[in-house]
Design goal:
Blueprint lengths: L2 E4 L3 E7 L2 E8 L1 H9 L5 E7 L5 H9 L3 E7 L5 E7 L6 E7 L19 E4 L4 H8 L7 E5 L2 H6 L1 H8 L4 E5 H8 L4 H10 L4 E5 L5 E5 L2 E5 L13 H16 L4 H18 L6 H5 L2 H14 L6
Parallel strand pairs: 1-4, 1-8, 2-6, 4-5, 8-9, 9-10, 10-11
Antiparallel strand pairs: 2-3, 6-7, 11-12, 12-13
Bound molecules: adenosine monophosphate.
Adenosine monophosphate binds next to strand 2, helix 1 and helix 8.
C-alpha cells in the first residue's frame, strides 16, 4: 500500500567528527521517502523554495517517489544547521530557519486522500493534524517529532499524539516528552497519550519497542564506517513504516521485523553525508544486511 508522508525538505549544513557538508539535501520527508521507497510506493507532501534545485527532485523521482504533493513557494527552502560531537547520538541544533515552512499549509491532493498509511514526519504538530483532517481513513498513522516541538508546542503535540497509532521517537525526546527519566516509565506515559506502539530510537544502541505485546529490543549494527548520523531517525522510520505498508500486517511479529528493517536502512544512511548512501543502495545490499542483523543477537541454548 502507498504511504503518504508529510515533512520537511531541507538544506542541511552538518559538522561531525568525520567531516562537514554545507547546504546538502536533507529534511525529514526526504530521508523517509527515499528509505521507504525501497519497500513500497511513497507520496510526498512538503514545500520547497525557489532556490531548490531540480536535480534533488530528480533523485526522488528516480526512486519513484510521487511528488504531486510537493509545493514550490516563493522564498527560501527550510534550512537546518547542526553538529555532532563524539557522541553521535545527540545532534546539536545550531540554527533552524523555517523559511517557506513558516507559511506552509499542507494541501493533500485528491489522489492522495485514500492513503492507507500516513507518516507524519518531524514538522510542526499543527501541520501534522492539518494533514490528518484531509485524509479519509488510514489503517495506520505513524509519526515522529523532536525536542524543538516538544518544547515549543507541547499542547498541540499532545493533540496530534492522541490521533497517532505508532510514534517513532528518540530516547532523549521520549524522556523529555514524558517528563520522566526512566525510559520504561516514560514509554508507558507516552503510550497513555495515544500511540499504541512507541518505538524508541537509541542511535548506536539500537531501538526499543513498547506495545501491547510488551517490549522488544533490536540491536544496532556495530559500524566501522559512520560518517554522518543526520537522517538516521527518518531512514529508520522509512524502513519501519515501509515494511509495515508493504505487508499491511501490524501484528507484533510484523512490527518487530519492521524495526529490524528500519535499523538496516539507518545503518546504511549513516555511512555517508546527506542521502548519498541511499543514492547507490540496492535491494540486494538491504537483504544481505538484514541477514547480518538476524545473526546479530542470535545465541544457542547450550
Ligand atoms: P533525524 O532523522 O532525526 O536525524 O532528522 C534529520 C533531519 O531533520 C534533517 O535533515 C533536518 O533537515 C530535519 N529537521 C531538523 N529540524 C527540523 C524541524 N524543526 N522541523 C522539521 N525538520 C527538521
Amino acid at each position: 500500500m502507498s504511504i503518504l508522508v508529510v515533512g520537511s525538505v531541507a538544506f542541511d549544513t552538518v559538522t561531525t567528527p568525520f567531516g562537514q557538508a554545507t547546504e546538502v539535501l536533507g529534511g525529514s520527508a526526504t530521508y523517509f521517502a527515499a528509505a521507504a521507497s525501497f519497500f513500497t510506493d511513497v507520496r510526498m507532501v512538503a514545500v520547497v523554495g525557489k532556490d531548490f534545485p531540480e536535480e534533488h527532485l530528480d533523485f526522488l523521482r528516480k526512486r519513484n517517489v510521487d511528488l504531486r504533493g510537493l509545493q514550490r513557494a516563493p522564498g527560501k527552502t527550510f534550512r537546518w544547521v547542526g553538529e555532532y560531537g563524539f557522541d553521535l547520538n545527540e545532534a546539536r541544533t545550531l540554527d533552524t530557519q523555517l523559511n517557506v515552512f513558516a507559511d506552509f499549509a499542507p494541501a493533500i491532493p485528491e489522489e492522495y486522500r485514500d492513503s492507507e498509511v500516513v507518516f507524519l514526519a518531524n514538522i510542526d504538530p499543527d501541520l501534522q493534524r492539518e494533514v490528518l483532517s484531509q485524509v479519509r481513513r488510514p489503517a495506520l498513522i505513524a509519526a515522529d517529532t523532536m525536542n524543538y516541538w516538544i518544547k515549543g508546542k507541547p499542547d498541540s503535540l499532545r493533540q496530534t499524539l492522541a490521533m497517532v497509532d505508532m510514534l517513532v521517537i528518540n530516547e532523549a525526546e521520549t524522556r523529555q516528552l514524558a517528563g520522566e527519566p526512566n525510559l520504561v516509565h516514560a514509554a508507558q506515559k507516552v503510550r497513555a497519550l495515544g500511540p499504541r506502539a512507541v518505538v524508541i530510537k537509541r542511535g548506536e544502541y539500537g531501538a526499543l519497542l513498547f506495545n501491547e505485546g510488551g517490549w522488544f529490543s533490536a540491536p544496532a549494527l556495530p559500524l566501522e564506517a559512520i560518517r554522518d548520523p543526520t537522517g538516521a531517525g527518518d531512514t529508520f522510520a522509512g524502513g519501519f513504516v515501509g515494511s509495515l505498508a508493504s505487508s499491511m500486517n501490524f501484528a507484533d511479529a510484523a512490527v518487530r521485523k519492521a524495526i529490524i528493517l528500519g535499523s538496516v536502512m539507518a545503518s546504511f544512511n549513516v555511512e555517508a553525508f546527506s542521502l548519498d548512501r541511499l543514492r547507490t543502495l540496492t535491494v540486494e545490499e538491504i537483504e544481505a544486511r538484514y541477514r547480518v542483523f538476524k545473526r546479530l543477537a542470535q545465541f544457542e541454548d547450550l
